[in-house]
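can u pls check wat happens w/ zinc ion
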Amino acid sequence: MPEGDAVHRTAARLRSALDGRVLTRSDFRVPRHATADLTGREVLTTLSRGKHLLTRVEGGLTVHTHLRMDGSWRIVAPGARVPPGDQVRLILANRDCTALGRKLGMVDLVRTEDEARLVGHLGPDLLGPDWDPDEAVRRLREAPDRTIGEALLDQRNLAGIGTIYRAETLFLRGIWPWRKVGEIEDLSGLVSLAQRLLAANLEHAGTVTTGDRRPSNATWVYGRAGRPCRRCGTRISRGEMGSQPQERLILWCAGCQPR
Ligand SMILES: [Zn+2]
């Protein structure tokens, strides 16, 4: 599941491929917009907001995409073969390159002035220019009886955290994932740490929270169920929490994150 840092990197790749160039082809392979055609319009820019991507196009239109579970945008040379089957949901091409949106969980075309309807509910974006830790804390505190694990994934509180950063942030702060939001004293430190972890991973693919980029050493708890904690040796626990079916996975160390 792509998290905020991966979506942010994707937006940067789309900007370098599409910004300021006129579309020579658009192909919406979703029923709702199958007849849409953006050919001849210049792409203004692509922004990421939490896990949403907003590609603004000349004429007051915005292409809204979301990577969901395993979506991606690939940039290929013009004329490159498009993979067969139904994996490609959207193609945006100019004279120099072709952007292939594969397995996108959402493809929509809206008026740019209506973007707020899509992303206006989101809390402060951990990687956005308007990141506001105080506002994130304020939103978290509005539901003090909620578990911190669920609250951190709720993009209305703060936007960009998925299951990996949730698990890693809570481990590093020594917080049991089912602890109530209202019982956590230093929420500000918690959200600031999450922000630093995402920001530290902006420049490279993959998620590193230990400072060690070797794949087997990159995380504290995520992907390490049943293996010994790097700090205390307790076997890492794995469980489920929350109600969003794709985002239940939680890993923690019962030694470092006691009840
Ligand atoms: Zn431990």
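The CA atoms of residues 54 and 64 lie 5 Å apart.
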